[in-house]
Write a structure and sequence with these properties.
Length: 76
């Protein structure tokens, strides 16, 4: 139960990561159902790659937010 709560909190606070994982999971299931050559290994690789992209997206947004915060603090 604690793992489920941790997962929900991760998706709430890091929604970009969750969005990329959920989106590519849906895409992987769709591709596996429609393309005969698209196997589970391809789907797993796609979702793992999306975790990396989600982390990069989240990191870029966090960096931008920190820069805005530092700029606003300098102005005060």
């Amino acid at each position: 139960m604690d793992a489920l709560i941790d997962l929900v909190m991760l998706l709430v606070f890091h929604w970009r990561l969750g969005l990329s994982v959920v989106g590519t999971t849906v895409l992987a299931v769709f591709l596996a159902a429609t393309l005969p050559w698209f196997s589970g290994a391809f789907g797993l690789a796609l979702v793992i790659a999306s975790v990396g992209l989600g982390l990069v997206w989240e990191g870029a947004a966090e960096k931008k937010r920190a820069e805005r915060f530092a700029k606003a603090k300098e102005g005060v």
